[in-house]
Specification:
This protein is of the alpha/beta class and 210 residues long. Helices cover 52% and strands 14% of the residues. The protein contains 10 helices and 6 strands, in the order βαβαβαβαβαβααααα. Helix 4 crosses helix 6 and helix 8 packs across helix 9. It starts with a strand and ends with a helix. 38% of the residues are buried.
Length: 210
């Protein structure tokens, strides 16, 4: 069973999202919060595979909660849900350590697919948001070359992370085990002094690897 923390301040919306998520028998909302502070308190007493956070909440917003969860519980993936089709919010979400950004009006099958992609190590962005955000990232392209310590094999992996591939997809494309892919990504993050695969994906885009 995949354990999900759902933080949303509107009760009806939260219950609706919970029902959508649990149409998949392997997904369970095992923690509910009405703001970011409550979400963090729940993380202190229980383990979650994924934290699904609304961006705008009272007391503590989702972006602040995402930064804390990513720092203190790095094994818990963070995905943002919002009504705002805004690339600036999406950029802030990625900087906060989120690996997904979806709109609340997504279809149930689309939401479940996004959750599974995030859990598998992929980067999930709602289509319209991604279309608006990518040009900004591309315009921020850094002129200097890729770190010379990155090997050709590691560069292949950086490229696929930048394309939003999961570890399983990368392993199948490159003929490697999932464990080997994870080890490579850890080494790459160490070399580039990056915090997580979200920062690595942005690095790939900014350096014209994808």
């Amino acid at each position: 069973m995949i354990r999900i923390l759902l933080a949303e301040d509107q009760s009806l919306v939260r219950q609706g999202l919970k029902m959508m998520i649990e149409t998949d028998d392997t997904l369970r909302v095992t923690g509910e919060a009405v703001n970011g502070a409550e979400a963090i308190s729940l993380c202190e007493t229980a383990t979650f595979d994924l934290a699904l956070l609304d961006i705008r909440m009272p007391v503590m917003d989702g972006l602040t909660a995402a930064r804390t969860i990513n720092s203190r519980w790095p094994d818990t993936k963070v995905m943002m849900l919002t009504t705002f089709n805004d690339d600036e919010y999406a950029l802030e979400a990625l900087k906060s350590g989120a690996v997904g950004y979806m709109l609340k009006d997504a279809e149930p099958t689309e939401l479940i697919r996004a959750i599974r992609n995030c859990l598998a190590g992929g980067l999930q962005l709602e289509g319209l948001v991604a279309a608006k955000m990518m040009p900004k990232l591309i315009n921020q392209t850094i002129s200097h070359e890729i770190d010379p310590t990155i090997t050709p094999r590691e560069l292949d992996i950086v490229k696929r992370v930048g394309e939003g591939r999961s570890n399983k997809e990368i392993s199948e494309e490159l003929g490697l085990s999932v464990g080997t892919v994870k080890n490579h990504i850890s080494q790459i993050l160490d070399k580039l002094e990056l915090r997580d695969r979200t920062q690595l994906a942005i690095y790939a885009i900014r350096h014209n690897v994808v």
